[in-house]
Amino acid sequence: MQVETIRPAGGRPTHIRHDDLISAKGVSVVMGTDRNRQLILRDIDLAVPQGSFVSLIGPSGCGKSTLLKVLAGLVNPSSGSVSVAGVSPGEAARKRMIGLVFQDANLLPWKNAVDNASMLLGIADKSMSRSALRARGQEMLDLVGLGDAAHKRPNELSGGMRQRVAIARALALDPAVLLMDEPFGALDAITRDSMGQSLLEIWQRTGKTIVFVTHSIDEAIQLSRQVHVLGIKPGRITQSLDIPLPYPRDASVTEVPEFVRLVLQLRTMLRSSHQPGGAT
Amino acid sequence: MNLSSPQPVSGWDAATSSWLPAAILLLVTIVLWEAAVRIFSISSFIVPAPSEIAKSLVAQWGTLMQATVVTAGEILFGFLVSVIVGIALALVIVRFDWLGRALYPLVVLFQNVPKVALAPIFILWFGYGLAPKIGLILVIAFFPVTLSMLAGMQSVDRSLLSLMNSVGASPTQILFRIRVPHSLPSLMAGTKIAATLSVIGAIVGEFAGASDGLGYVIQFASTQLDTALVFAALLMVSVLGIAFYYAAEILERVVVPWAPKFSQA
Protein backbone atom coordinates (compact mmCIF):
# COMPACT_ATOMS: atom_id res chain seq x y z
CA MET A 1 0.00 0.00 0.00
CA GLN A 2 0.96 3.59 -0.55
CA VAL A 3 0.56 4.57 3.07
CA GLU A 4 4.14 3.79 3.90
CA THR A 5 5.66 5.81 1.10
CA ILE A 6 3.52 8.96 1.10
CA ARG A 7 3.43 9.94 4.71
CA PRO A 8 2.98 13.65 5.44
CA ALA A 9 6.09 15.25 6.81
CA GLY A 10 4.25 17.05 9.57
CA GLY A 11 2.09 14.09 10.53
CA ARG A 12 2.47 11.92 13.55
CA PRO A 13 3.46 8.61 12.02
CA THR A 14 3.63 6.87 15.36
CA HIS A 15 -0.11 7.19 15.69
CA ILE A 16 -0.98 5.99 12.21
CA ARG A 17 -1.46 2.28 12.14
CA HIS A 18 -0.55 0.73 8.83
CA ASP A 19 -4.02 -0.59 8.18
CA ASP A 20 -5.81 2.68 8.97
CA LEU A 21 -6.96 4.28 5.75
CA ILE A 22 -8.36 7.32 7.52
CA SER A 23 -6.88 8.81 10.61
CA ALA A 24 -8.02 11.93 12.44
CA LYS A 25 -6.12 13.19 15.48
CA GLY A 26 -7.40 15.87 17.80
CA VAL A 27 -9.61 17.44 15.14
CA SER A 28 -11.56 20.51 16.21
CA VAL A 29 -13.69 22.70 14.01
CA VAL A 30 -14.65 26.24 14.93
CA MET A 31 -17.11 28.07 12.73
CA GLY A 32 -18.68 31.49 12.61
CA THR A 33 -17.34 35.01 12.85
CA ASP A 34 -15.37 36.45 15.76
CA ARG A 35 -18.46 37.55 17.65
CA ASN A 36 -20.32 34.30 17.25
CA ARG A 37 -17.74 31.56 17.28
CA GLN A 38 -19.05 28.08 17.69
CA LEU A 39 -17.15 24.95 18.51
CA ILE A 40 -18.68 22.44 16.12
CA LEU A 41 -16.31 19.56 16.74
CA ARG A 42 -13.96 19.05 19.67
CA ASP A 43 -10.91 16.88 19.75
CA ILE A 44 -12.04 14.11 17.44
CA ASP A 45 -9.85 11.04 17.26
CA LEU A 46 -10.94 8.63 14.61
CA ALA A 47 -9.24 5.72 12.94
CA VAL A 48 -10.92 3.89 10.09
CA PRO A 49 -9.19 0.67 9.09
CA GLN A 50 -8.71 -0.15 5.42
CA GLY A 51 -11.74 -1.97 4.04
CA SER A 52 -13.89 -1.25 7.06
CA PHE A 53 -17.48 -0.08 7.31
CA VAL A 54 -17.77 2.55 9.99
CA SER A 55 -20.88 4.50 10.96
CA LEU A 56 -21.12 7.84 12.71
CA ILE A 57 -24.34 8.26 14.64
CA GLY A 58 -25.58 11.05 16.83
CA PRO A 59 -28.37 13.54 17.44
CA SER A 60 -29.03 16.43 15.05
CA GLY A 61 -26.46 19.16 15.39
CA CYS A 62 -23.72 16.89 16.71
CA GLY A 63 -21.51 17.75 13.76
CA LYS A 64 -21.43 14.32 12.17
CA SER A 65 -21.91 15.82 8.71
CA THR A 66 -19.18 18.37 9.43
CA LEU A 67 -16.87 15.55 10.44
CA LEU A 68 -17.59 13.83 7.14
CA LYS A 69 -16.81 17.07 5.31
CA VAL A 70 -13.52 17.30 7.17
CA LEU A 71 -12.67 13.79 6.01
CA ALA A 72 -13.66 14.78 2.48
CA GLY A 73 -11.45 17.86 2.54
CA LEU A 74 -14.43 20.18 2.14
CA VAL A 75 -13.98 21.72 5.60
CA ASN A 76 -10.58 22.48 7.06
CA PRO A 77 -10.19 21.59 10.72
CA SER A 78 -9.28 24.51 13.00
CA SER A 79 -6.81 22.26 14.76
CA GLY A 80 -5.70 18.67 14.60
CA SER A 81 -4.62 16.58 11.67
CA VAL A 82 -6.40 14.34 9.21
CA SER A 83 -4.92 11.94 6.75
CA VAL A 84 -6.58 9.81 4.14
CA ALA A 85 -4.33 7.11 2.71
CA GLY A 86 -1.37 9.01 4.07
CA VAL A 87 -2.15 12.37 2.48
CA SER A 88 -4.36 15.33 3.35
CA PRO A 89 -8.06 14.91 2.54
CA GLY A 90 -7.92 17.63 -0.11
CA GLU A 91 -5.08 15.89 -1.88
CA ALA A 92 -6.78 12.53 -1.51
CA ALA A 93 -9.88 14.00 -3.17
CA ARG A 94 -7.82 15.33 -6.06
CA LYS A 95 -6.32 11.87 -6.46
CA ARG A 96 -9.87 10.53 -6.72
CA MET A 97 -9.53 8.57 -3.50
CA ILE A 98 -12.75 9.94 -2.03
CA GLY A 99 -16.25 9.21 -3.25
CA LEU A 100 -19.08 11.29 -1.80
CA VAL A 101 -22.77 10.46 -1.49
CA PHE A 102 -25.22 12.86 0.11
CA GLN A 103 -28.81 12.55 1.23
CA ASP A 104 -29.97 14.19 -1.97
CA ALA A 105 -28.79 12.33 -5.05
CA ASN A 106 -28.16 15.66 -6.81
CA LEU A 107 -28.23 14.18 -10.28
CA LEU A 108 -28.15 16.48 -13.27
CA PRO A 109 -31.72 16.42 -14.61
CA TRP A 110 -30.56 17.01 -18.18
CA LYS A 111 -28.34 13.94 -18.27
CA ASN A 112 -29.39 10.31 -18.34
CA ALA A 113 -28.33 7.81 -15.69
CA VAL A 114 -25.18 6.62 -17.42
CA ASP A 115 -23.92 10.16 -18.10
CA ASN A 116 -24.73 11.13 -14.53
CA ALA A 117 -22.78 8.13 -13.26
CA SER A 118 -19.69 9.15 -15.21
CA MET A 119 -20.08 12.93 -14.75
CA LEU A 120 -17.63 13.42 -11.86
CA LEU A 121 -15.12 11.05 -13.41
CA GLY A 122 -15.23 13.10 -16.60
CA ILE A 123 -14.32 16.21 -14.65
CA ALA A 124 -11.65 14.49 -12.59
CA ASP A 125 -10.04 12.83 -15.59
CA LYS A 126 -10.13 15.05 -18.64
CA SER A 127 -8.18 12.58 -20.75
CA MET A 128 -11.01 10.04 -20.86
CA SER A 129 -12.97 9.80 -24.08
CA ARG A 130 -16.73 10.05 -24.13
CA SER A 131 -17.11 6.40 -24.97
CA ALA A 132 -14.71 5.34 -22.21
CA LEU A 133 -16.72 7.43 -19.75
CA ARG A 134 -19.95 5.85 -20.96
CA ALA A 135 -18.49 2.38 -20.58
CA ARG A 136 -17.36 3.16 -17.06
CA GLY A 137 -20.74 4.66 -16.20
CA GLN A 138 -22.52 1.59 -17.53
CA GLU A 139 -20.21 -0.71 -15.56
CA MET A 140 -21.02 1.19 -12.37
CA LEU A 141 -24.75 1.17 -13.07
CA ASP A 142 -24.53 -2.61 -13.51
CA LEU A 143 -22.75 -2.78 -10.16
CA VAL A 144 -25.53 -0.90 -8.36
CA GLY A 145 -28.21 -2.92 -10.13
CA LEU A 146 -29.41 -0.23 -12.53
CA GLY A 147 -27.92 -1.62 -15.71
CA ASP A 148 -31.19 -1.42 -17.67
CA ALA A 149 -31.97 2.16 -16.63
CA ALA A 150 -28.89 3.65 -18.28
CA HIS A 151 -30.82 5.89 -20.67
CA LYS A 152 -33.43 7.11 -18.25
CA ARG A 153 -33.36 10.67 -17.02
CA PRO A 154 -33.52 11.35 -13.27
CA ASN A 155 -37.18 12.38 -13.45
CA GLU A 156 -37.97 8.89 -14.73
CA LEU A 157 -36.24 7.22 -11.77
CA SER A 158 -37.55 6.57 -8.27
CA GLY A 159 -35.84 8.06 -5.21
CA GLY A 160 -34.03 4.81 -4.49
CA MET A 161 -32.89 4.48 -8.10
CA ARG A 162 -31.61 8.05 -8.11
CA GLN A 163 -29.59 7.31 -5.00
CA ARG A 164 -28.19 4.20 -6.69
CA VAL A 165 -27.01 6.41 -9.55
CA ALA A 166 -25.40 8.73 -6.98
CA ILE A 167 -23.54 5.75 -5.52
CA ALA A 168 -22.51 4.65 -9.01
CA ARG A 169 -21.23 8.18 -9.66
CA ALA A 170 -19.07 8.04 -6.53
CA LEU A 171 -17.82 4.52 -7.35
CA ALA A 172 -16.93 5.52 -10.92
CA LEU A 173 -13.98 7.46 -9.48
CA ASP A 174 -12.75 4.15 -8.05
CA PRO A 175 -12.15 5.84 -4.71
CA ALA A 176 -10.45 4.16 -1.79
CA VAL A 177 -13.13 5.43 0.55
CA LEU A 178 -16.83 6.16 0.24
CA LEU A 179 -18.06 8.94 2.50
CA MET A 180 -21.84 8.79 2.80
CA ASP A 181 -23.93 11.43 4.56
CA GLU A 182 -27.32 9.94 5.42
CA PRO A 183 -27.55 8.53 1.90
CA PHE A 184 -30.83 6.72 2.55
CA GLY A 185 -32.31 9.36 4.85
CA ALA A 186 -34.92 10.53 2.36
CA LEU A 187 -36.09 7.07 1.34
CA ASP A 188 -39.04 5.06 2.62
CA ALA A 189 -38.38 2.17 5.00
CA ILE A 190 -38.70 -0.61 2.42
CA THR A 191 -36.45 1.05 -0.14
CA ARG A 192 -34.05 1.88 2.65
CA ASP A 193 -33.70 -1.78 3.63
CA SER A 194 -33.01 -2.93 0.11
CA MET A 195 -30.53 -0.07 -0.43
CA GLY A 196 -28.71 -1.13 2.71
CA GLN A 197 -28.49 -4.71 1.45
CA SER A 198 -27.21 -3.52 -1.93
CA LEU A 199 -24.63 -1.30 -0.27
CA LEU A 200 -23.33 -4.24 1.77
CA GLU A 201 -23.04 -6.33 -1.40
CA ILE A 202 -21.21 -3.53 -3.20
CA TRP A 203 -18.93 -3.07 -0.20
CA GLN A 204 -18.05 -6.75 -0.10
CA ARG A 205 -17.52 -6.96 -3.83
CA THR A 206 -15.38 -3.84 -4.15
CA GLY A 207 -13.60 -3.81 -0.80
CA LYS A 208 -14.07 -0.04 -0.42
CA THR A 209 -13.71 1.58 2.96
CA ILE A 210 -17.01 3.18 3.94
CA VAL A 211 -17.75 5.94 6.43
CA PHE A 212 -21.49 6.20 6.83
CA VAL A 213 -23.33 8.99 8.63
CA THR A 214 -26.79 8.04 9.85
CA HIS A 215 -29.28 8.77 12.58
CA SER A 216 -30.86 5.32 12.37
CA ILE A 217 -29.73 2.91 15.06
CA ASP A 218 -30.93 -0.14 13.14
CA GLU A 219 -29.20 0.97 9.96
CA ALA A 220 -25.93 1.60 11.78
CA ILE A 221 -25.90 -1.83 13.40
CA GLN A 222 -27.16 -3.68 10.36
CA LEU A 223 -24.48 -2.30 8.08
CA SER A 224 -21.36 -1.40 9.96
CA ARG A 225 -18.47 -3.12 11.62
CA GLN A 226 -18.00 -0.28 14.07
CA VAL A 227 -20.24 2.57 15.22
CA HIS A 228 -19.00 5.83 16.69
CA VAL A 229 -21.48 7.77 18.79
CA LEU A 230 -21.25 11.55 18.66
CA GLY A 231 -22.44 13.83 21.43
CA ILE A 232 -23.64 17.42 21.11
CA LYS A 233 -22.35 20.79 22.26
CA PRO A 234 -19.66 20.45 21.25
CA GLY A 235 -19.66 17.58 18.77
CA ARG A 236 -17.33 14.87 19.96
CA ILE A 237 -17.05 11.12 19.83
CA THR A 238 -18.42 9.93 23.16
CA GLN A 239 -18.35 6.17 22.71
CA SER A 240 -17.63 3.55 20.12
CA LEU A 241 -19.26 0.19 19.65
CA ASP A 242 -17.93 -2.76 17.71
CA ILE A 243 -20.57 -4.77 15.89
CA PRO A 244 -19.42 -8.38 15.99
CA LEU A 245 -22.25 -9.72 13.79
CA PRO A 246 -20.75 -11.82 11.01
CA TYR A 247 -20.93 -10.79 7.34
CA PRO A 248 -22.58 -11.33 4.98
CA ARG A 249 -25.56 -9.90 6.78
CA ASP A 250 -29.01 -9.96 5.25
CA ALA A 251 -32.29 -8.53 6.48
CA SER A 252 -32.74 -11.47 8.88
CA VAL A 253 -29.86 -10.16 10.98
CA THR A 254 -32.36 -7.88 12.72
CA GLU A 255 -34.02 -10.94 14.27
CA VAL A 256 -30.86 -12.25 15.94
CA PRO A 257 -30.85 -11.75 19.76
CA GLU A 258 -27.38 -10.25 19.49
CA PHE A 259 -28.77 -7.56 17.17
CA VAL A 260 -31.45 -6.65 19.67
CA ARG A 261 -28.86 -6.46 22.44
CA LEU A 262 -26.70 -4.15 20.32
CA VAL A 263 -29.66 -1.91 19.54
CA LEU A 264 -30.36 -1.50 23.25
CA GLN A 265 -26.71 -0.84 23.97
CA LEU A 266 -26.41 1.77 21.22
CA ARG A 267 -29.64 3.41 22.30
CA THR A 268 -28.29 3.79 25.83
CA MET A 269 -25.10 5.30 24.45
CA LEU A 270 -27.05 7.74 22.32
CA ARG A 271 -29.16 8.80 25.27
CA SER A 272 -26.12 9.65 27.33
CA SER A 273 -24.61 11.48 24.35
CA HIS A 274 -27.51 13.93 24.43
CA GLN A 275 -26.13 15.55 27.54
CA PRO A 276 -24.20 18.58 26.39
CA GLY A 277 -20.65 19.20 27.53
CA GLY A 278 -19.29 16.18 29.36
CA ALA A 279 -15.78 14.88 29.42
CA THR A 280 -14.59 13.10 26.31
CA MET B 1 -69.23 8.95 -25.37
CA ASN B 2 -70.26 6.55 -22.68
CA LEU B 3 -70.04 8.37 -19.39
CA SER B 4 -70.03 5.26 -17.23
CA SER B 5 -66.73 4.03 -18.64
CA PRO B 6 -64.08 6.71 -18.33
CA GLN B 7 -61.75 6.73 -21.29
CA PRO B 8 -58.38 8.34 -21.62
CA VAL B 9 -58.86 11.84 -22.98
CA SER B 10 -57.13 12.30 -26.31
CA GLY B 11 -54.85 15.27 -26.93
CA TRP B 12 -57.39 16.91 -29.22
CA ASP B 13 -60.23 16.49 -26.74
CA ALA B 14 -58.09 17.90 -23.96
CA ALA B 15 -57.12 20.86 -26.15
CA THR B 16 -60.69 21.67 -27.18
CA SER B 17 -62.01 21.29 -23.65
CA SER B 18 -59.38 23.71 -22.35
CA TRP B 19 -59.88 26.20 -25.20
CA LEU B 20 -63.61 25.97 -25.56
CA PRO B 21 -64.73 28.12 -22.59
CA ALA B 22 -62.36 30.92 -23.60
CA ALA B 23 -63.49 30.73 -27.22
CA ILE B 24 -67.15 30.89 -26.22
CA LEU B 25 -66.54 33.89 -23.96
CA LEU B 26 -64.68 35.67 -26.75
CA LEU B 27 -67.50 35.02 -29.19
CA VAL B 28 -70.12 36.23 -26.71
CA THR B 29 -68.09 39.38 -26.05
CA ILE B 30 -67.84 40.14 -29.77
CA VAL B 31 -71.57 39.61 -30.28
CA LEU B 32 -72.46 41.84 -27.30
CA TRP B 33 -70.00 44.48 -28.49
CA GLU B 34 -71.53 44.50 -31.98
CA ALA B 35 -75.02 44.64 -30.50
CA ALA B 36 -74.17 47.46 -28.08
CA VAL B 37 -72.63 49.60 -30.82
CA ARG B 38 -75.70 49.13 -33.00
CA ILE B 39 -78.36 49.51 -30.30
CA PHE B 40 -76.85 52.64 -28.77
CA SER B 41 -75.59 53.84 -32.19
CA ILE B 42 -72.15 54.62 -30.83
CA SER B 43 -70.04 56.60 -33.24
CA SER B 44 -67.40 54.50 -34.98
CA PHE B 45 -64.85 57.24 -34.14
CA ILE B 46 -65.25 56.28 -30.51
CA VAL B 47 -65.88 52.55 -30.54
CA PRO B 48 -66.03 50.83 -33.92
CA ALA B 49 -68.14 47.71 -34.14
CA PRO B 50 -66.30 44.42 -34.65
CA SER B 51 -67.73 44.29 -38.15
CA GLU B 52 -66.24 47.73 -38.89
CA ILE B 53 -62.87 46.54 -37.62
CA ALA B 54 -63.11 43.44 -39.81
CA LYS B 55 -63.96 45.59 -42.82
CA SER B 56 -61.02 47.86 -42.14
CA LEU B 57 -58.79 44.83 -41.69
CA VAL B 58 -59.75 43.55 -45.14
CA ALA B 59 -59.59 46.95 -46.83
CA GLN B 60 -56.19 47.86 -45.39
CA TRP B 61 -54.78 44.33 -45.47
CA GLY B 62 -51.80 45.29 -47.64
CA THR B 63 -50.77 48.21 -45.42
CA LEU B 64 -51.29 46.23 -42.25
CA MET B 65 -49.29 43.23 -43.44
CA GLN B 66 -46.43 45.43 -44.55
CA ALA B 67 -46.45 47.21 -41.16
CA THR B 68 -46.68 43.86 -39.36
CA VAL B 69 -43.61 42.56 -41.16
CA VAL B 70 -41.66 45.69 -40.18
CA THR B 71 -42.71 45.49 -36.53
CA ALA B 72 -42.12 41.73 -36.38
CA GLY B 73 -38.58 42.29 -37.66
CA GLU B 74 -37.94 44.87 -34.95
CA ILE B 75 -39.34 42.59 -32.27
CA LEU B 76 -37.35 39.56 -33.41
CA PHE B 77 -34.10 41.48 -33.73
CA GLY B 78 -34.59 43.35 -30.47
CA PHE B 79 -35.60 40.18 -28.67
CA LEU B 80 -32.50 38.30 -29.84
CA VAL B 81 -30.23 41.18 -28.84
CA SER B 82 -31.93 41.35 -25.42
CA VAL B 83 -31.51 37.62 -24.84
CA ILE B 84 -27.86 37.66 -25.89
CA VAL B 85 -27.00 40.72 -23.80
CA GLY B 86 -29.07 39.42 -20.88
CA ILE B 87 -27.29 36.06 -20.89
CA ALA B 88 -23.85 37.64 -21.30
CA LEU B 89 -24.49 39.97 -18.38
CA ALA B 90 -25.64 37.12 -16.15
CA LEU B 91 -22.57 35.06 -17.06
CA VAL B 92 -20.24 37.96 -16.30
CA ILE B 93 -21.94 38.67 -12.98
CA VAL B 94 -21.66 35.04 -11.88
CA ARG B 95 -18.21 34.27 -13.22
CA PHE B 96 -16.36 37.43 -12.15
CA ASP B 97 -17.30 38.04 -8.57
CA TRP B 98 -15.94 41.60 -8.21
CA LEU B 99 -17.42 42.68 -11.53
CA GLY B 100 -20.71 41.12 -10.50
CA ARG B 101 -20.74 43.07 -7.27
CA ALA B 102 -20.11 46.24 -9.26
CA LEU B 103 -22.63 45.53 -12.00
CA TYR B 104 -25.55 43.92 -10.24
CA PRO B 105 -26.65 46.88 -8.07
CA LEU B 106 -26.41 49.18 -11.09
CA VAL B 107 -28.50 46.82 -13.18
CA VAL B 108 -31.15 46.74 -10.46
CA LEU B 109 -30.97 50.52 -10.10
CA PHE B 110 -31.36 50.97 -13.85
CA GLN B 111 -34.44 48.78 -13.64
CA ASN B 112 -36.17 51.60 -11.76
CA VAL B 113 -35.76 54.04 -14.63
CA PRO B 114 -39.05 54.23 -16.54
CA LYS B 115 -37.56 52.97 -19.76
CA VAL B 116 -40.49 53.94 -21.94
CA ALA B 117 -39.45 57.52 -21.19
CA LEU B 118 -36.11 56.83 -22.86
CA ALA B 119 -37.78 56.45 -26.26
CA PRO B 120 -37.47 60.14 -27.26
CA ILE B 121 -33.80 60.17 -26.25
CA PHE B 122 -33.13 57.08 -28.35
CA ILE B 123 -34.83 58.73 -31.32
CA LEU B 124 -32.61 61.76 -30.74
CA TRP B 125 -29.49 59.63 -30.64
CA PHE B 126 -30.21 56.98 -33.24
CA GLY B 127 -32.69 58.58 -35.64
CA TYR B 128 -35.91 57.13 -37.00
CA GLY B 129 -34.63 53.77 -38.21
CA LEU B 130 -34.27 50.34 -36.67
CA ALA B 131 -31.58 51.24 -34.11
CA PRO B 132 -33.69 53.21 -31.58
CA LYS B 133 -36.31 50.41 -31.54
CA ILE B 134 -33.67 47.77 -30.90
CA GLY B 135 -32.17 49.96 -28.18
CA LEU B 136 -35.53 50.45 -26.51
CA ILE B 137 -36.42 46.75 -26.67
CA LEU B 138 -33.01 45.95 -25.23
CA VAL B 139 -33.35 48.20 -22.19
CA ILE B 140 -36.86 46.93 -21.55
CA ALA B 141 -36.35 43.22 -22.15
CA PHE B 142 -32.82 42.26 -21.06
CA PHE B 143 -33.60 42.46 -17.35
CA PRO B 144 -35.91 39.44 -16.94
CA VAL B 145 -33.40 37.41 -18.96
CA THR B 146 -30.48 38.39 -16.73
CA LEU B 147 -32.46 38.04 -13.54
CA SER B 148 -33.96 34.64 -14.33
CA MET B 149 -30.65 33.24 -15.49
CA LEU B 150 -28.90 34.54 -12.38
CA ALA B 151 -31.57 32.99 -10.17
CA GLY B 152 -31.17 29.68 -11.99
CA MET B 153 -27.38 29.72 -11.78
CA GLN B 154 -27.37 30.63 -8.10
CA SER B 155 -29.88 28.00 -7.04
CA VAL B 156 -27.51 25.08 -7.64
CA ASP B 157 -27.55 22.79 -4.62
CA ARG B 158 -24.57 23.28 -2.31
CA SER B 159 -23.82 19.61 -2.00
CA LEU B 160 -23.64 19.32 -5.79
CA LEU B 161 -21.03 22.09 -5.68
CA SER B 162 -19.26 20.15 -2.92
CA LEU B 163 -19.16 17.12 -5.20
CA MET B 164 -17.70 19.19 -8.00
CA ASN B 165 -15.13 20.79 -5.69
CA SER B 166 -14.13 17.42 -4.32
CA VAL B 167 -12.90 16.33 -7.74
CA GLY B 168 -11.15 19.63 -8.33
CA ALA B 169 -13.56 21.18 -10.84
CA SER B 170 -12.57 24.69 -11.94
CA PRO B 171 -14.99 27.63 -11.59
CA THR B 172 -15.35 27.67 -15.36
CA GLN B 173 -16.20 23.96 -15.42
CA ILE B 174 -18.76 24.45 -12.66
CA LEU B 175 -20.20 27.39 -14.58
CA PHE B 176 -20.64 25.67 -17.91
CA ARG B 177 -21.24 22.07 -16.83
CA ILE B 178 -23.55 22.77 -13.90
CA ARG B 179 -24.71 26.35 -13.45
CA VAL B 180 -25.61 27.20 -17.03
CA PRO B 181 -27.59 24.04 -17.84
CA HIS B 182 -29.19 24.22 -14.39
CA SER B 183 -30.34 27.77 -15.13
CA LEU B 184 -32.01 26.92 -18.46
CA PRO B 185 -35.56 26.23 -17.18
CA SER B 186 -35.52 29.49 -15.25
CA LEU B 187 -33.88 31.32 -18.16
CA MET B 188 -36.60 30.10 -20.53
CA ALA B 189 -39.24 31.50 -18.19
CA GLY B 190 -37.44 34.86 -18.29
CA THR B 191 -37.16 34.61 -22.06
CA LYS B 192 -40.92 34.29 -22.39
CA ILE B 193 -41.33 37.49 -20.38
CA ALA B 194 -38.72 39.16 -22.59
CA ALA B 195 -40.67 38.09 -25.70
CA THR B 196 -43.76 39.88 -24.40
CA LEU B 197 -41.79 42.96 -23.38
CA SER B 198 -40.12 43.08 -26.80
CA VAL B 199 -43.52 43.67 -28.42
CA ILE B 200 -44.15 46.57 -26.06
CA GLY B 201 -40.67 47.98 -26.74
CA ALA B 202 -41.18 47.90 -30.50
CA ILE B 203 -44.58 49.62 -30.37
CA VAL B 204 -43.38 52.31 -27.95
CA GLY B 205 -40.35 52.86 -30.16
CA GLU B 206 -42.61 53.34 -33.16
CA PHE B 207 -44.89 55.71 -31.25
CA ALA B 208 -41.91 57.89 -30.41
CA GLY B 209 -40.85 58.25 -33.98
CA ALA B 210 -41.23 56.04 -37.02
CA SER B 211 -42.41 56.08 -40.59
CA ASP B 212 -43.45 52.47 -40.66
CA GLY B 213 -44.69 49.61 -38.52
CA LEU B 214 -47.87 48.88 -36.58
CA GLY B 215 -47.16 51.51 -33.93
CA TYR B 216 -46.91 54.09 -36.69
CA VAL B 217 -50.15 52.84 -38.27
CA ILE B 218 -51.93 53.13 -34.90
CA GLN B 219 -50.72 56.66 -34.40
CA PHE B 220 -51.41 57.74 -37.95
CA ALA B 221 -54.90 56.19 -37.96
CA SER B 222 -55.82 57.82 -34.67
CA THR B 223 -54.90 61.28 -35.99
CA GLN B 224 -57.19 60.51 -38.95
CA LEU B 225 -59.94 59.44 -36.52
CA ASP B 226 -59.89 56.06 -38.30
CA THR B 227 -60.53 54.19 -35.06
CA ALA B 228 -61.45 51.01 -36.89
CA LEU B 229 -57.96 50.90 -38.39
CA VAL B 230 -56.47 51.55 -34.93
CA PHE B 231 -58.28 48.49 -33.66
CA ALA B 232 -57.31 46.46 -36.71
CA ALA B 233 -53.65 47.34 -36.11
CA LEU B 234 -54.08 46.53 -32.41
CA LEU B 235 -55.39 43.14 -33.43
CA MET B 236 -52.27 42.55 -35.49
CA VAL B 237 -50.07 43.63 -32.55
CA SER B 238 -51.87 41.14 -30.34
CA VAL B 239 -51.42 38.39 -32.89
CA LEU B 240 -47.71 39.23 -33.02
CA GLY B 241 -47.48 39.14 -29.23
CA ILE B 242 -49.18 35.76 -29.06
CA ALA B 243 -47.01 34.42 -31.88
CA PHE B 244 -43.79 35.49 -30.15
CA TYR B 245 -44.93 34.15 -26.82
CA TYR B 246 -45.71 30.73 -28.24
CA ALA B 247 -42.51 30.72 -30.26
CA ALA B 248 -40.67 31.22 -26.95
CA GLU B 249 -42.74 28.45 -25.42
CA ILE B 250 -41.85 26.05 -28.23
CA LEU B 251 -38.21 27.07 -27.82
CA GLU B 252 -38.52 26.18 -24.15
CA ARG B 253 -39.77 22.70 -24.97
CA VAL B 254 -36.91 22.17 -27.38
CA VAL B 255 -34.20 23.51 -25.08
CA VAL B 256 -35.30 22.01 -21.76
CA PRO B 257 -37.47 18.95 -22.42
CA TRP B 258 -36.25 17.55 -19.09
CA ALA B 259 -37.44 20.47 -16.98
CA PRO B 260 -40.57 20.53 -14.87
CA LYS B 261 -43.01 23.14 -16.17
CA PHE B 262 -42.28 26.48 -14.54
CA SER B 263 -45.29 28.50 -15.46
CA GLN B 264 -48.46 28.04 -17.38
CA ALA B 265 -49.66 31.10 -19.20
TrEMBL record, chain A:
Keyword NADP: no
CDD domains, alphabetized: ABC_NrtD_SsuB_transporters
SMART domains: AAA (SM00382)
Boundaries of every ABC transporter domain copy: 16-259
PROSITE patterns associated with the record: ABC_TRANSPORTER_1, ABC_TRANSPORTER_2
Annotated keywords: ATP-binding, Nucleotide-binding, Transport
MF terms (GO), sorted A to Z: ATP binding; ATP hydrolysis activity
InterPro entries attached to this UniProt entry: AAA+_ATPase, ABC_transporter-like_ATP-bd, ABC_transporter-like_CS, ABC_transporter_ATP-bind, P-loop_NTPase
Keyword Transport among record annotations: yes
Top-level taxon: Bacteria
Pfam families associated with the record: ABC_tran
Family of the protein in this entry: Belongs to the ABC transporter superfamily.
Protein's name in the database: NitT/TauT family transport system ATP-binding protein
Automatic annotation (TrEMBL), chain B:
Highest taxon listed in the record's lineage: Bacteria
Transmembrane segments: 20-41, 75-94, 106-128, 134-153, 187-208, 228-248
The entry's keywords: Cell membrane, Membrane, Transmembrane, Transmembrane helix, Transport
Bilayer topology: Multi-pass membrane protein
Any one GO BP annotation for this protein: transmembrane transport
Residue ranges annotated for the ABC transmembrane type-1 domain, each copy included: 64-248
Compartments where found: Cell membrane
Cellular component GO terms held in the UniProt record: plasma membrane
PROSITE patterns, A to Z: ABC_TM1
UniProt xrefs under InterPro entries: MetI-like, MetI-like_sf
Record family assignment: Belongs to the binding-protein-dependent transport system permease family.
Protein name, UniProt field: NitT/TauT family transport system permease protein
